[in-house]
Specification:
Layout (H helix, E strand, L loop, with lengths): L1 H14 L5 H14 L4 H11 L8 H7 L6 H14 L3 H10 L5 H13 L3 H11 L9 H11 L28 H9 L5 H8 L6 H10 L5 H12 L7 H4 L8 H19 L28
Helix pairs in contact: 2-3, 3-5, 5-7, 6-7, 7-8, 8-11, 11-13, 12-13, 13-15
Amino acid sequence: MKRALLFLGLCCLAALGQPGPKEKASRDALDKALTDKNPEVRRQAVIALSLVGSVDPYPSDLQSMMNDKDVDVRLAVISSLTDLTNSNRTMLSLHTALNDAVPEVGFAAARALYNLNDPEGKAALQAVLGGDSKTASGYMTKQKRDTLRMMHTPKTMFLFAVKTGAGLAPVPGLGTGVSSMQALLSDAGTSGRAAAALLLEKEKDDQTLAALRDALQDKDWSVRAAAVHSLALQDNPDREEDIAPMIDDKSEPVRLRAAAGYLRLEQIKNAPKPAPKPVVKSTTKARPKAATVPKKTT
């Protein structure tokens, strides 16, 4: 009798949606990790939440972690939120992150919004490229943060997603300039503004074009190199007049990219145009219309 009642109770709990032992243990493990004193543990928990799915309470857990005191945790939140869902709540969280006190977080939010086709992301990247925003903390701020966290965060961690998705690899024959992009991002001298120029590669509106042209005169070699890279990959021969003067730039990475970009555009300009497709005339003769017989009136 007792066993029957116990079994009935378990069935009722299952019917009410009560979690099983494994599910409860999993949830408890994540909850514990999200509140751990070690920021690396919290970061790993945030990363793991990207695997769960977009059903609450998991997106809410991520959004609450946007207020974490550790910078790398907040950066991981942005990445996982983007991976989990693009709901209105996610977009709101990313908009809030644009104004984060740490520039790296704001830049990551701008990049995420841009990849989600939100106009605020593009506007923020244009502001970065134009020098209206910063993408890296000052030395003293970074030094204090590294001392508190007892670990160094590589600068290029904040610049990896130049195109939608990560782990981008060259595809033979496409000539998409992946090696050029990766070399820029792996260089310790590459600035966040250069990364913004790379992110805006596909944008061909007048405002972005003006920003890229201005970047060609920037004091930072990495910004100039990134601008040349993006202008060349627009595959518009009209950009030759912008790139040509950069062949004499004082920076070798800029000069070489300008030379290669110029040759790329020359090939596009001189490529033979495809022959127009011949018009195939129909050999089927049109059938004469059947004569209409007037109806007899009675």
